[in-house]
From TrEMBL:
One of its GO terms (molecular function) is DNA binding. It comes from Methanoregula boonei (strain DSM 21154 / JCM 14090 / 6A8). Residues 188-359 form the Helicase ATP-binding domain. PANTHER family: ATP-DEPENDENT HELICASE IRC3-RELATED, TYPE I RESTRICTION ENZYME ECOKI R PROTEIN. This is Type III restriction enzyme, res subunit. PROSITE patterns: HELICASE_ATP_BIND_1, HELICASE_CTER. It holds the Pfam family ResIII. GO terms for cellular component: cytosol. Residues 448-596 form the Helicase C-terminal domain.
Length: 596
């Protein structure tokens, strides 16, 4: 059989019989949207010669009957069933691909509309089957490559749709989820079942609100709960103090001299301590020693937790001290918040996730998933629609040669991650710096500003550029461009400016007098500035996904203008023939897919 095309009912049974009965295959690798594991158990009983069935599917879409869970676990322990899964909130698997093997060699392949479920036999399905080796190999060859490109790792642990954490005492009371968006309710119910959690959802989706309700939930369980909130910037300290004040919760900032801590200890019931990461890791032994006298429950909240990667050893020591045997804390909880926990240094990401109990303790929603599903479940959306405008820059032949040379070093260093530790992704950072620093891309952005100056005179714009020098250059260019409104103003907002200048710039911007801020990194997190009209992205070397933080300034839903759009203008780097570079592809494809 070269190729066979079939349509109709009962096609999945036909394929399984063909693979296991006719071709005597002893292994199946299946990619499917849905997986019913009762069917897998039946196959092992019906065809005893089967050695292994490997699944790749969505975490939420595995099913098994209660009475067969024990048998399933035995098959998993013996590695006869291997489950790989990705949360639909990160990347939804919709393909249905089947590849059969006998004695390690491919025997049969199929691409079909049929899920791995008995129900598929009742549906009118289509199926394309072949024994050709090149066809079978091609069916699975791109999966690993795409997952690596999108920086998504398949999970090996049992999906929670199969093995639920049973702890009825910790089910969250409905009053703590009233008035929340649907995704916030789901996350709170998820948090109530664990003591460590990473909430990794898009900006503008209410991470702080989730944390506040979680604090209130734990206060209700035990009034003698102490909460420590750790943040990377003074601005976030002030934001948290205001949020907590609005909720009637007393909060105390701890500075380097331990001021205000006495007020906290006068009556620590239902109180919150807020401090910077940098301060906390120097002072926490003293703080914990004082807190421990009250023998409270302890909740540690790490806001913008991706900023912790430079202090992972300190964080590990802190966790170890809190969780050691004989600790005075009755219960310890850890909540980490971020719109993106990604980094060029993947080892840091892996260590952080492992420290918090692994992937099963991470609630992650990608931007495409949020727009396609969660954003539509509320009476009013959480996020605005996006209007995406890519600006393409084609690398010259010499620039492309340099890019390929740097990419080769990225590949070499990524193979040596365990030997080189945190320095293993220096090449990835150098490559990003090189691409973002190409002079031709600056010209593309300036040209766009010249031809769209009227748009920059209206509403609020934030432009993210990779260096302070180009920020200053672009500001000068912007205000001297023909058509620029002299009543408007532009500020360079980054770490090289004085605090007084930054405060003035931000006040002008909030009052709608300053219409354009140009920043390296500072405005990409921790600033809930209202009513942003557009964001210009010129990338950075901080993370492959820090653009998620940056567009967050614009995509928050504006209840005063429900029809407003978030305009995202994006410098996209391409090879000399115009094909988007691999390091740009995920951002480009994601923004294009959710654009109006």
């Amino acid at each position: 059989m070269d190729f066979e095309f079939k349509q109709g009912l009962n096609l999945l049974n036909y394929l399984l019989d063909l693979g296991f009965k006719t071709r005597k295959s002893d292994e199946l690798e299946c990619i499917s949207y849905n997986v019913n594991l009762n069917l897998a158990i039946r196959l092992f009983s019906e065809y005893p010669h089967i050695r292994k069935i490997i699944f790749h599917a969505n975490s939420q879409n595995f099913s098994i009957s209660t009475e067969q869970r024990g048998q399933l676990l035995k098959l998993i322990e013996s590695e006869k069933i291997v489950i790989n899964h990705i949360s639909r909130n990160e990347l939804c698997i919709h393909s249905k691909v089947y590849r059969f093997k006998k004695d390690g060699n491919f025997t049969l392949g199929a691409i079909t509309s049929a899920n791995f479920s008995e129900n598929s036999n009742l549906n009118f399905e289509s199926m394309y089957i072949s024994e050709r080796l090149d066809f079978i190999e091609d069916l699975g060859s791109g999966v690993a490559e795409k997952l690596q490109l999108y920086e998504i790792k398949e999970k090996k642990s049992l999906p929670e749709s199969i093995v639920q954490i049973l702890d009825s005492d910790r089910k969250i009371d409905k009053r703590f989820v009233e008035g929340l968006w649907v995704h916030q309710q789901a996350i709170l119910e998820w948090l109530a079942l664990r003591r460590k959690g990473i909430v990794n959802i898009p900006p503008g989706c209410g991470k702080s609100r989730i944390a506040i309700r979680y604090i209130q939930y734990l206060f209700n369980r035990n009034r003698k709960t102490t909460v420590i909130i750790l943040v990377p910037t003074i601005t976030l300290i002030n934001q948290w103090k205001q949020i907590l004040k609005n909720e009637g919760i007393d909060a105390f900032e701890v500075d380097m001299d331990m001021n205000n801590i006495g007020q906290y200890f006068a009556n620590p019931t239902e109180k919150v301590i807020i401090t910077l990461y940098s301060r906390f890791f120097e002072k926490y032994p003293i703080i914990l020693q004082k807190i421990s006298m009250f023998k409270p429950d302890l909740l540690t909240i790490s806001d913008e937790c991706h900023n912790l990667y430079s202090s992972l050893e300190d964080l590990e020591r802190y966790y170890s001290q809190i969780l050691r045997s004989g600790t005075p804390f009755k219960q310890s909880y850890f909540l980490s918040l971020s719109a993106t926990i990604d980094s060029f240094i993947q080892e840091n990401v892996d260590r952080f996730i492992a420290l918090n109990g692994g992937e099963q303790n991470r609630f992650s929603i990608s931007i495409p998933s949020f727009y396609s599903y969660w954003n539509n479940l509320n009476k009013t959306p959480c996020l605005k629609p996006i209007m995406y405008q890519p600006l393409y820059y084609n690398l010259s032949l010499s620039e492309m040669q340099k890019y390929l040379e740097l990419s080769r070093f990225v590949g070499i260093e990524s193979q040596n991650v365990t030997l080189q530790g945190d320095n293993s992704f220096d090449a990835a950072i150098r490559r990003a710096q090189y691409v973002r620093g190409l002079e031709g891309s600056y010209k593309i952005l300036k040209s766009y500003i010249q031809t769209h100056i009227e748009a920059f005179n209206r509403g609020n714009t934030i432009i993210f550029v990779p260096t302070h020098e180009f920020a200053e250059e672009l500001r000068t260019f912007l205000v001297n461009t023909k058509g620029w409104n002299p009543k408007s103003s532009a500020y360079v907002y980054d770490s090289k400016k004085s605090d007084m200048y930054l405060q003035h710039a931000l006040e002008q911007f909030k009052n709608n007098l300053g219409f354009c801020l140009i920043s390296e990194i500072m405005l990409s997190e921790g600033f809930d500035i209202p009513v942003i009209s557009r964001v210009v992205l010129h990338g950075s070397h901080k993370s492959q996904r820090d653009w998620i933080q940056k567009i967050g300034r614009a995509i928050r839903f504006d209840p005063t203008n429900e029809s407003s759009l978030a305009e995202v203008i994006d410098l996209v780097f391409c090879n000399p023939t115009g094909k988007v570079l691999p390091i740009e592809e995920e951002r480009y494809e994601t923004l294009k897919s959710i654009s109006k």
